[in-house]
Amino acid sequence: MADVAERAGVSTSTVSRTLRGLSTVSPEVRARVEKAARELRFAVSRQAASLVTGRTGTVAVMVPTLNSWFTGSALSSLAPLLRAAGMQLNVYEIPDLAERTAFFEHLPARRNADALLVFCFDLTDEETARLDDLGMPVIYVSQHVDGRPSVYVDDVAGALHGTRHLLNLGHRRIAFVPTEGASGFTFSSNERLLGYRQALTEAGVPLDDDLVVFVRGNGKRAAAESLGALLSLREPPTAIFAEQDEIAVALIWNLRKTRIAVPERVSVLGFDDQPLADWFDLSTVAQSPSEMGRLAGELALKLIDDSDGDHERHIVLPTHVMPRGTTAPVAGPSSATATTTEPATAAATRPADQSAR
């Protein structure tokens, strides 16, 4: 930095202000300093700077996977926000329990970041306490954690409104298909299941545990197994609410493969509003992970700059129902009538006769 200052004819503090992007440097001086830095191939050493400032200039992110629409959308808005603030982004991907154990044993983010964003983890009390001891702001994203800063959508309200959409179309046999993620991780399943049940209760529809079927795994086969469990019920559902859009699309593929028309025979609703929801004309409950990532980044920067800030702040984002072509009013009795003389396989794939209930 002293070499750059000598070549540009300025002080080292002016070089520091220039390279940090501060507005207190005139355009003419900024141009001289940047030219000198290029000629000397000077690069800022964050490690050296941290010895002076006590900050690393880095925000760490802890995610269960990078191979998801949610994570990608959130990071795509978080990264440019941090760059504009002169900060770097460091991502820790923790896809399984072995990686998780190693992370909490060594806590690599300690002294290597100024804040940590935790995405979609169901942490134990011991793990939460370990993060509390990092000595930096820890912001929880897509989850509510009592007493800690959190940014998330109201999953209960989202599922409640989604289920109401199906109820208002006349459906009473509504299935809910949550996902079962990797061991130790959850993706808002419990909150969405709660919202689904609340909507049924307020509508006076009895809860039926047989209509809640988990998808265990990924892809069409896993969805087919869950769908098979629903279609083999004595009274199959006339509507299916899938916890994620990918699951909803896989269910639709399997329904159409077995020649069960969507939405004429069975309505399907997703949750997320990913791009594929629009491509498949999927009715869904929309959330915005990109907005979640942006707000979490802004909160992290605020808490880094103000250690006395609100470290218990909760930012709750709304959801909204996006009705498209995969949900419709429940089919009338004439469209699906099961009799005792039908083969069992045919009866299992028919929606229930609503007039008989």
If you had to describe this structure to a student in words, what would you say it looks like?
This protein has helices spanning 2-8, 12-19, 27-39, 46-53, 69-84, 97-106, 125-132, 155-168, 189-202, 219-231, 245-257, 275-279, 289-305, 344-348; strands spanning 58-63, 88-93, 115-119, 138-141, 150-153, 174-177, 179-180, 215-216, 239-242, 267-272, 283-286, 314-317, 320-322. It is of the alpha/beta class and 357 residues long. A six-stranded parallel β-sheet has the order 2-1-3-4-5-12, covered by helices on one side. β1, α5 (69-84) and β2 form a beta-alpha-beta unit. It starts with a helix and ends in a 9-residue tail after the last helix. Residues 334-357 have low confidence and may be disordered.
Compile the SSE list and pairings:
Elements: H1 2-8, H2 12-19, H3 27-39, H4 46-53, E1 58-63, H5 69-84, E2 88-93, H6 97-106, E3 115-119, H7 125-132, E4 138-141, E5 150-153, H8 155-168, E6 174-177, E7 179-180, H9 189-202, E8 215-216, H10 219-231, E9 239-242, H11 245-257, E10 267-272, H12 275-279, E11 283-286, H13 289-305, E12 314-317, E13 320-322, H14 344-348
Parallel strand pairs: 1-2, 1-3, 3-4, 4-5, 5-12, 6-9, 7-8, 9-10, 10-11
Antiparallel strand pairs: 11-13
- Give me the side-by-side strand order of the main sheet: 2-1-3-4-5-12
| Largest sheet features | 6 strands, parallel
What quaternary form is this?
Answer: single chain
Q: How many beta-strand segments?
A: 13
Shape: elongated
How many angstroms does the end-to-end distance come to? 80 Å
Number of helices: 14
Helix content: 40-55%
Cα-based radius of gyration, to the nearest Å: 26 Å
**Rounded average pLDDT:** 86
In the predicted model, the low-confidence regions spanning at least 5 consecutive residues are 334-357
Q: From the helix content, strand content and strand pairing, which structural class follows?
A: alpha/beta
Secondary-structure element order, N to C: HHHHEHEHEHEEHEEHEHEHEHEHEEH
Strand content: 15-25%
